[in-house]
From TrEMBL:
GO terms for biological process: DNA repair; error-prone translesion synthesis; SOS response. It holds the Pfam family IMS_C. The lineage of its organism: Bacteria, Pseudomonadati, Pseudomonadota, Gammaproteobacteria, Enterobacterales. Residues 2-187 form the UmuC domain. It comes from Paramixta manurensis. The keyword Protein transport does not apply. Belongs to the DNA polymerase type-Y family. Keywords: DNA damage, DNA repair, SOS mutagenesis, SOS response. GO terms for cellular component: cytosol. Coiled coil: none annotated. InterPro entries: DNA/RNA_pol_sf, DNA_pol_Y-fam_lit_finger_sf, DNA_pol_Y-fam_little_finger, DNA_polymerase-Y, DUF4113, Rev_trsase/Diguanyl_cyclase, UmuC. This is Protein UmuC.
Length: 420
DNA sequence: TCTGGGGTCCTAGGACCC
DNA sequence: TCTGGGGTCCTAGGACCC
């Protein structure tokens, strides 16, 4: 038996926890660069503010309804997420942290001592008490059904935010009311195709032949069908598998046209990516760089490209990663474009670094690499200051825009933006 | 003027091997 | 008349998730 717990309007709720004066007002949180809406409070949803709408398109609406707008403050959200997850881990033998605001819990043994619904309410009350955040809880025999239950718990207020969907008749009744596109794992493309085949509700999908689904689509959808019927195909993954890829990319605050600025940005992304790689205790051999202009501008030619470089010896030394990234950048940089976004991707990971020196490797592993990286990461995590490579530059005019950032209520001073 | 960032899994097809 | 069989690895692209 699985429970899926997720926080209602997570980012927006994190902002209001520390601002009780905002309760009852519509609140939205914007993506990086204050680009578009990525979270809305219940009141903002009522105003029909859609997910993903560009901020500049809704300024009138915001003024009219006194919508409270925040830049995203990931340091705050990550900290609040940790608090929620810690509480959940104290309440179940196994928890899978599925995303920043969601977790699956193993609740198989619970029904021996209390009803599943009672347990769901306990989870909700305790998280509320300890973090001032409200969660929804869905419970069922498979992850896909638990997701569905959670979805319904939020949609129908009479559930009080908790729904035990372990009863087969209740499952069928709910599935007959849920459109197929609301099923976990069914996105826009597949739901369109399913609709054309006459499959419109979750129940229709659950009653499809697995063989036909596999033939017309793929095994992923076949598993979804089985899960909807109560046959578990997905397990609880308590320990996150090691990452296979690390990406660090940002849109720029304004378009980049100068090579020097692009080099600084790539250098900064490479540094951040290398830091994440060391956080995973991994070493990489592949370093790729991509850049692109805006796809939205009508009278400009779109340019997007990417290039990959390889290290012969796996490394997590920022200096190696910057060097290969800049070499890759130089292969795809074309002057004259107005670049909107760029990024650095790391791949081909190894759990050990210098396994074997290659005789023909022209770049030797850097001496004392591990010690130097340890010092850099130590300083940067201490909250006392930041160390960075000179290649990033000092002014960083390309750095992202966050004009409505809330204070770092729970985290350190150094997470605040520097105001000059 | 202005539109996010970071991941995963699966499949098909080509290169290459014996 | 008439061109083997079976396998692995890699990459690109498509779909999905939050």
């Amino acid at each position: 038996m699985f429970a899926l717990v997720d926080v209602n309007s997570f980012y927006a709720s994190c902002e209001t926890v520390f601002r009780p004066d905002l309760r009852g007002l519509p609140v939205v949180v914007l993506s990086n660069n204050d680009g578009c809406v990525i979270a809305r409070s219940a009141e903002a949803k009522k105003l029909d503010i859609k997910m993903g709408v560009p901020y500049f398109q809704m300024k009138d609406l915001i003024r009219k309804h006194r919508v409270q707008v925040f830049s995203s403050n990931y340091a705050l959200y990550a900290d609040m997420s940790n608090r929620v997850m810690t509480t959940l881990e104290e309440m179940a033998p196994a928890v899978e942290i599925y995303s920043i605001d969601e977790a699956f819990m193993n609740v198989s043994g619970v029904s021996n001592c209390m009803s599943l619904e009672r347990f769901g309410r306990d989870v909700r009350d305790r998280v509320q008490r300890e973090t001032h955040l409200t969660v929804g809880v869905g419970i069922a025999q498979t992850k896909t059904l638990a997701k569905l239950a959670n979805h319904a718990a939020k949609k129908w207020s009479k559930t009080g935010g908790v729904l035990d969907l372990s009863n087969i008749d209740r499952q069928r009744k709910l599935m007959s009311m849920v459109p197929v596109e609301d099923v976990w794992g069914v996105g826009r493309r597949i739901s369109k195709k399913l609709n054309l085949m006459g499959i419109e509700t979750a129940l229709h999908l659950a009653e499809c032949s697995t063989w036909v689904m596999r033939k017309h689509f793929n095994v992923v959808l076949e598993r979804t069908v089985r899960e909807l019927r109560g046959e578990p195909c997905l397990e609880l993954e308590e320990f996150s598998p090691t990452k296979q890829q690390i990406v660090c990319s940002r849109s720029f605050s304004s378009r980049i046209t100068e090579y020097e600025q692009m080099r600084q940005a790539i250098c900064a992304y490479a540094e951040r990516a290398a830091e994440k790689l060391r956080g995973e205790r991994q070493y990489c051999r592949q370093i790729a760089v991509f850049l692109r202009t805006s796809p939205h501008v009508a009278n400009e030619v779109f340019y997007g490209n990417q290039a990959m470089g390889k290290l012969l010896t796996p490394s997590n030394d920022t200096r190696d990663i910057i060097r290969v990234a800049i070499e890759a950048l130089d292969r795809i940089w074309i002057a004259g474009h107005r670049y909107m976004k760029a990024g650095v991707m790391l791949g081909d990971f190894y759990s050990q670094g210098v396994a074997q020196l290659n005789l023909f490797d022209e770049f030797r592993p850097q001496p004392n690499s591990a010690a130097l990286m340890h010092v850099i990461d130590g300083v940067n995590q201490s909250g006392k200051g930041k160390l960075w490579f000179a290649g990033q530059g000092i002014d960083k005019p390309w750095a992202m825009k966050r004009q409505m950032l809330s204070p770092a209520y729970t985290t350190r001073y150094s997470d605040l933006p520097v105001v000059k």
